[in-house]
UniProtKB/TrEMBL annotation:
The keyword Cell inner membrane does not apply. The lineage of its organism: Bacteria, Bacillati, Actinomycetota, Actinomycetes, Mycobacteriales. Keywords: Signal. It comes from Corynebacterium ammoniagenes DSM 20306. Residues 51-274 form the Solute-binding protein family 3/N-terminal domain. This is ABC transporter, substrate-binding protein, family 3. It comes from the Bacteria. Coiled coil: none annotated.
Amino acid sequence: MKYKVLAALASVTVLSGCVTNSEPALPDGWEEITPERVDAIAAMVDDEDGVLTAGTNPPFAPFEFKDDAGNIVGVEMDLARAMASVMGLDFQPVEQDFAMILPSIQGGQLDIGVSGFTDTEERRQNFDFVNYLYAGIQWAQPTSTSKDVDPENACGLTVAVQRTTVSETDDVRPKAAECDGDLEILSYDTSDNAAIAALTGRADALSADSPVTAYAVNRSDGQLEMVGEMFDAAPYGMAVAKDSDYGPAMAAALQHLIDTGDYARILAQWGIEDGLIDTAMINERPQS
């Protein structure tokens, strides 16, 4: 038993190198991509302080997490910063609890939300989303499990998720209802804690957005593996207040990055090469 405990702790140490609140380094070969201001796009929005403030909730690797110096880094940070640069604005991430980001946009404390938001019909009722990537839900399981883990037949399992994400609200909670409660949900404040719960055996499986699951599996030193196929593909988006000027301006900035190739280069630096778009969208409506 002592050996098993020590082995589990060692595995957590390996996984925590990528999904906890402290990351050792940026990807090999990473470089900051800072495009020049485009005056016509900058004129689309009036930002009085010249700073695009973005609510975000690290860790959610590879989208946002902290490096050893406490800086918030990740693919969404790089992309939003580049979009802000095109808009002639500085970029300032603001760390918040995930559940408070959208209310803070509504209240005017934040300009935008950049925290792995899945663009859903329910969220669109009160917010607009500048779409930049398509992703789905992907499950993972410990490689050492003896259980038959099947996302399509989940009754009897314990599944770890990040609280209030689509994996919780649209995936495991409806499945728990179908199982008449015979599915235990472990909800965590962060995706890293959900991944660690699966890795250490507290949960039979992890349900998360496909890039997040892939990142955790790739950094788990073989302790986690994908199970089942990706499903419920949907667009990721940066959230803005409904009918805000930020939406069209950010979409125009994103289209500029797509046209110049900077968009694909930013995502490729983080190993994301699937689900890319070729036309900027708001709520899945093309803007050009």
